[in-house]
Design brief:
Layout: H1 2-9, E1 27-30, E2 36-39, H2 50-66, E3 73-77, H3 85-96, E4 101-105, H4 113-126, E5 134-135, H5 144-159
Parallel strand pairs: 3-4, 4-5
Antiparallel strand pairs: 1-2
Length: 160
């Protein structure tokens, strides 16, 4: 998450670690004096105890349901692995909370065009998405323009 966030912002603001699950708190990054990107703890691959992961889930739920200024939840999914029950639960929770969800397929540079399209269709179906997921790569920058355009459109549609 942090690598993609840095790529989108265009500078190294979020700390990046080689091991997943290092983000343990809610981190706010002011982008252009108009809005924040908020980096939340992940829920998928963290090598942490059950209690700590459960605490993250509770913090995530409180934030998504209760943050008045939240305009969009961006969920990151690795298209190379099967959709998890946690992914489905998060998507359902975001919808139930009345929030917009945009799913980003990370590490898109690791799959060919055909397998990536198949994964996108599978994930959209499994998560019952309202809009297609956007493929991206923090390494190559692929999908950055499309992702920023989608974020901009969703945020501005909410303001109207």
């Amino acid at each position: 998450k942090s690598s993609l966030l840095n790529r989108l912002i265009g500078r190294a603001m979020a700390h990046v670690s080689k091991a997943p699950g290092k983000t343990r708190t809610i981190n706010y990054y002011l982008v252009n004096k108009q809005f924040y990107f908020v980096d939340l703890p992940g829920y998928g691959f963290a090598n942490r105890g059950k209690e700590e992961r459960q605490g993250w889930g509770e913090s995530l739920s409180r934030y998504i349901a209760g943050e008045a200024n939240l305009r969009l939840v961006v969920g990151l999914v690795d298209p190379r692995v099967p959709t998890s029950s946690l992914d489905a639960e998060l998507a359902a929770f975001v919808r139930a909370a009345g929030r917009d969800l945009l799913v980003v397929l990370t590490k898109a540079d690791k799959l060919g065009r055909g397998p990536l399209a198949e994964a996108a269709a599978r994930i959209a179906r499994d998560l019952m998405l309202d809009r297609p997921p956007i493929a991206s790569s923090a390494t190559s920058g692929a999908g950055k323009r499309e992702l920023l355009a989608a974020i901009d459109q969703i945020i501005h549609d909410k303001e109207e």
